[in-house]
Structure formats: structure tokens, C-alpha cells
Design brief:
Blueprint lengths: L17 H15 L1 H39 L3 E4 L10 H9 L4 E16 L2 E10 L1 H8 L5 E4 L9 E5 H7 L6 E5 L6 E9 L4 H6 E5 H8 L7 E6 L5 H9 L4 E4 H4 L1 H39 L1 H9 L4 H34 L3 E3 L5 E3 L6 H27 L3 H6 L1
Parallel strand pairs: 3-8, 5-7
Antiparallel strand pairs: 1-9, 1-10, 2-3, 2-6, 2-9, 4-7, 5-8, 6-7, 11-12
Amino acid sequence: MSANNPPEVSGPLQNGIIPTLEFTVVSRHITFRKGRTALAVGAIALAVGITILSTSIQNGFQEFIFDILFKNLPHATVTPPDGETYLHLYRNIVERTWAIPGVVGVSPTLITTATIAYKDEVENVAMLGIDPLEADKISRISESMVKGEITSVLGGKRIVMGQALADKLKLRYGDTVRVSFPDASPLNLVVAGIFDTGYEPLDEGITYVSLETAREFLAEGDVITEIDIKMEDPFEAEAAVANLRSYGYNAKGWQELFPDIVRTLAFERTSNFITLLLIMVIAAFGIASIMNMLVQEKTREIGMLMAMGATSSQIRRLFIIESGLLGLLGAAVGCLLGALAAVQLRGLEIQSPVGQSINLPVVLNIQDFVVYTILAVLLSVAAGAYPAHLASKLDPVEALRG
């Protein structure tokens, strides 16, 4: 018998039974050494579980940020040409904006800085002159109102402010404040509404009045400082911006308006993916180590299989199937553990990136389970490829000798 010419045999091994034998041998390997199998499966399960949990939390935070971005902020904005303070003849822009498909809100806004004084308390804030019905389509102010209505600014010299600002000024709903600023006309405004978004910088620094009140304060005519636009689909904002720019307007989409948010989300997705991939690669090296030990332990068994007619490709396939099966088992257990951990953490109260207390946002996506399972199996198969190659190159005679 030579290494290159194993004995020719007839019967089951030459009649297609080898694939069944491969699975039988793999099953025996997996069940015989339960500790080693548990170690391999556990390594992959831990990697997949951590990956699922981390990805689910990342998905949750991304959805939370996009919820703020897409529901409470404009998707596009038109501002004055460079070097100018105000938009004149803005009604033409408003009409052209409404003509763009997918637009659901267009809010002309006059923004200025104002000093609000009440008794001995003084605060500088941004004062926004708005059409409350249109502005509410952009930022949904009405949903955050705790006293009064946002539409109350239409009733004369009235102002709506955040609860945090009201607390700092030590005033209550219905009180009258003094609003002033250099080169502006001082006004006495009644606090006709208080909102609470849960985002302290906004609740402390933003106030709302009517467009007419803002113009009277600035002693300006029919002008605005920007036009905020809301789209039915936020990802259509760039098409709307391109349309408005074709008319020469200074328009920007949310990607330009909030670049820090976009960059942060992109960076977190990339860094998170790389970190989790490295975790799974490390787990796959555990599979490689275990498969290499298995080849050394099963040298005589490999020799017997080759003497019975098993080819090198069949031996190679045997070990690749085993490593892939270990990866699949580990991925299944890891997906279950990751999902259970994610569900349990949903009730954990944390401080959100915008300052409010929220339950930990967790979003489980079925595609993540599929992708990470496939990735775990592929990495496990790749990890078992070299030990499988070594096994297929064993000399049957030397292998039988052990």
C-alpha cells in the first residue's frame, strides 16, 4: 500500500455513502468531547451575542437620533444670500417650495437675539418669530406644551418659552416679561405658553413669538431670516434643495445643516463594525485551534478512513463541515443570548445624548441575526480550512501508525 495509491475498494464507500459517513463522523466528534465542543460553541456564541447586543443598542440610538432629526428639526432650510441679513420677497420662495413634490411643511421664521428680564432675573435667548401653524409642522412644538398653546402667540404681544427658562427667570404662566436688545424696540410680553421638550439647552435658550411681534421688536418690515422645510421622506431633502438652488436660492439639506450628527453616526457605525468583526475573528481563531488539536488527536481515524477509500477532498470536507457546524451552533446560541440580553436592557434608564432620561433604546433587526450568523459560519469555515488541509495531506500509512 502506498501513500499515493490507497487500496481500491468496492461497496458503500464507493457508492456515495461517504457524505453520510462524514456527517456521522462529525456528529461523533462533536458529541464525544463535550467540553471542547462547548468551548468552541461558547467562543462563537459569546462573540455573536456581544455583536447582536451592541448592534441592537447602536440601532436604537441611531433611531433615537434620527427620530429627533427627522421629526423635530427641518429637513432643509433656505437662508439669505451671502452678505445679507434678511430674506425679502420670501413669499415667492414659499410658493415654489410648496410646489416641490413631498413637501409637507414650509415655515418662514424671523430669528433674533433678545434679553428677557423678569424682576431681578435676566437671560439672553433666541427669539423666533413664527407662524405657529406652519412652525408646528416642522418642530411639533404643540406636542411639548405643558401650559397654554403655541397658537397663543397670535393673540398679540405674547411669548412662549421653555420650562427650564421659566424656572431660571422664576416666573409663571401668565406673567409679563420685558424683552429688549441693543438697536431693538423694547416690548412687554405676556407668557402665554410653556413647553418642555426634555432637552435643556432648547428649553432654556429658545422662545417663540409671532412674526408680527418679532418684526415690531426689530423695527423691520415684511422680512424673515430663514425658511424651514419639512419633507414627507427626509431622504428626498437633497432633491428639494437642488430644485431650490436651481432658482438661485441659498438652500441646504439636513446633511449640511447637522453635519456633526451625520459624521458621528457614520463614525460609530464604522468603528462598531470593525470592533465587533475583530471579536468574531478572535473567536474564529479559537475554532482553528480546536480543529488543529482534533486533527492531531484523530490521526489514526483519518488514516483508517483514507485506507477505506476516503479521498483527500472528503477528509478536507469532513473537517470543514465540522468547523462550520460549530460556527452555526455558536451563532444560534449567540443570537438567542444577544436577543435576551437586549430585551432585558430595554428597561434600563439612562441619560440620552440630548440630556433627557430615557429607557435604553434597543432595536432588534432580523437582518442583523441573519448577517452575523452567516458571518460566524464563514469565519468558522475559514478557521477550519487550514486544519482540514493538514488532515487531507496525511499519509494513510503514517496516519495508521499514529
